[in-house]
Design brief:
The chain is an alpha/beta fold. It is built from 5 helices and 5 strands; from the N terminus they run E-H-E-H-E-H-E-H-H-E.
Length: 162
Amino acid sequence: MLPIRRLLAATDFSIAGFPAVVTAGEFAVHFGAELVLVHVLPPPPLTPVVTPERMATLPSATEIDKYERDSERQSREDLDRLVVEKLPPGLVCRTIVQVGQAAEAIVRLAEQEAADLIVIATHGRTGWRRLAFGSVAEKVVRTATRPVLVVPSPGQAESPSQ
């Protein structure tokens, strides 16, 4: 695993995920490594659109394309802002926006980018919430062939019985 030359950190832009981004930045500075900051967009919703002019119809290809373009543009802007606000100046950092299932995309990108370490946050879901919503961090840990550093969300250590 050592030396670390490239880290891949995933973010969902939640407050609970910011400590993982900060930690990845600190590791990158310490090792003089490149940081690849990733956000994975879910696939576009294919729910019927209801307007006064038309009853329930699936969104058109144009509507889906516009949704994807707008979502990707906003995500790139959010990543750029995150780099400025949460990471040390001068850090070598690239940003990537992908569309897909988060865990699978993170693992695939870590392979493609030859990341020496994946850094990801856990949101502290336990019990029925974890069963209902799943855990991206857990899926990454289970399926990644690269080392994974899971950074707990703020307050997790204080209340283990969540």
